[in-house]
Amino acid sequence: MTVTKKAVSGHNRANAGTAILRWMGRNSVFLVLVALVVVGSMVSRHFLRPGNIESVARNLPIIGLMAIGLTFVILTAGIDLSVGAVLSLIVVVSSYHLANGGTIVSTILMCLAIGACVGILNAVLITKGRLEPFIVTLATLSIVGGAALIFTDGQTLSIGSSDQAMAYAEISPSNLLGVPTPMVIFLVLFVVCVFLAHHTQFGRNVYAVGSNQEAARLAGVNVTQTKIGVYVISGLLAAVSGIVWSSRLTAGDPIGGEGYELDAIACAVIGGASLFGGEGSLGGTLIGILIVTVLNNLMNLLGIPPYSQKIAKGAIIALAVLVERQRQLHRQTTVVAKFAVEG
User: Fold this and answer.
1) Which of 242, 259, 289, 326 is deepest in the core (most CB within 10 A)?
2) Tens digit of each residue's pLDDT (9 = 90 or more) over 315-341
3) Within 13 Å, how many C-alpha atoms sit on residue 211's CB side?
4) CA 314, 318, 324, 328 torsion-angle sign
5) Residues near 244 by Cβ (< 8 Å), separated by ≥ 6?
6) Taking the alpha carbons of 248, 253, 259, 265 in that order, is the dihedral positive or negative?
7) Would you give the distance in Å from CA 220 to the centre of its chain?
8) Which run of H or of E encompasses 179?
């Protein structure tokens, strides 16, 4: 009897340990975020101060909105490298328009139209031209970024001092119900995108196209429309990021968006979005956004040079892709072994 009780107890402990390991595996990204916050609070006394937390809340939407748009694109096995250039063009166009008598409404509508047009251009070249998303968006990155430099002759533009410009400049610094306005904008758009991705036919089509484009087409999914939709979403959210960015700095820097696409891709990939398409969630991307934003903030607090920060971000992306690839190979091996046993 004693031996039996010991065996049962050992079996229960083994099951509990297995369950804990499985939970940690499923929530590894969240645990990384928790560990990062703990380490940050230990190495910097400013990290958990209210002023720094507010700064994180105002910076997060700029990268976060682009990361949400990129998640849609990545779910279809695509990529959008042009989002940083779109942000740069938006900030200079909005600054120029406001400085020359434009209103807030006309500025926002113009910026959204530019983002949507870049998204449509990317999608048409990819679907109708049958070109690789990497090549297309690399080309539009160069075109759009060059347009921002030509438009300003390489100079930073001010939004001016008109009443409309001053009202526009209050978008980012202001609060709504005690919450920074940029964070409110981010949360609203995040909820809308979660509903779109997980509770609509369009969202199901996105996953279907990413999992197997040919099978999706044979099942009646309009692949072209789906890809146009995701690239338009990416362009629109990059435009909103530009609006928030220019409102905060009250100026348009033609190279201000350089490198932002790297952070946005890192957020999606760290959050579990597979670059091979068909796998990922906006919930996971949200955790990735928090990790990248907190990491950026912590490196700034510790005085790490910007160039060194780029090395760290590149290493993180490479590691995340490597882990995802190994997980995919493990799943494929498991499926093959299962069918072999059943056979």
Assistant:
1) 242
2) 776 776 676 666 666 666 655 555 555
3) 13
4) positive
5) 61, 62, 65, 171, 172, 182, 185
6) positive
7) 29
8) strand 179-180
Instruction: Look at residue 52 and give its three-state secondary structure.
Output: helix
Distances, alpha carbon 43 to alpha carbons 53, 57, 146, 302, in Å: 16, 20, 41, 8
CA separation (Å) from 266 to 106, 134, 208, 235? 33, 16, 23, 18
Amino acid identity of 135? I
Q: For the whole model, what pTM was predicted?
A: 0.86
Over its C-alpha atoms, the chain yields an Rg (Å, rounded) of: 23
Q: What are phi and psi of 180, to 5 degrees?
A: -50, 135
How far is the C-alpha of 174 from the C-alpha of 332, rounded, in Å?
50
Instruction: Tell me the two tokens of residue 214.
Output: 């040919």
Nearest in space to 90 (alpha carbons), one of 125, 119, 56: 119
Residue linked to tokens 């609070």:
41
Report the C-alpha gap between 281 and 279 in whole angstroms. 7
Rounded average pLDDT over 222-244:
95
Of the candidates 158, 156, 157, 186, the residue with the CA atom closest to the CA atom of residue 171: 186
> What does DSSP say about strands 157-158 and 251-252: parallel, antiparallel, or unpaired?
antiparallel
